[in-house]
Amino acid sequence: MKDIINKLNKIFDSRMRLGIMSVLVVNDWVEFKYLKEVLDASDGNLASHIKALEKNEYIDVQKLFVGKKPQTSYRVTSLGKKAFQEHLNALEKLLNNRNK
Fold it and tell me: Which of 14, 7, 20, 4 is nearest to 94 (CA)?
């Protein structure tokens, strides 16, 4: 059991980060505005969680101007996909562990 717990990634303890990663692993690039809407997050809250994921190199950030408006989009990196999948695998093992 201790082995399984140690394989859980602390960066994904936050439900907001879990939500961000869940959206990003199934999409190529996702705009900040979309993440904000789908996760029902404030600008500041979402930005701080994105910053933590970016710091760990789990997501890439792309800043563009569409017309005169700034547009920020995100995608998961290969490192982020791997870390997230390992976290999900550990959760699954934990859920399937029945008094062994």
Answer: 4
Q: For residues 67 and 100, give the distance between their C-alpha atoms in angstroms, rounded to a whole number.
A: 59
- Catalogue all structural domains in the chain, each as residue range(s) with its CATH number: 2-91 (1.10.10.10)
pLDDT digits (tens, 9 = 90+) for 33-87: 999 999 999 999 999 999 999 999 999 999 999 889 999 999 999 999 999 999 9
List the one residue out of 11, 5, 4 whose CA is nearest residue 82: 11
What span, in angstroms and rounded, lies between the C-alpha atoms of 83 and 73? 20
Count, in order, helices (H) and strands (E) of the chain: 5, 3
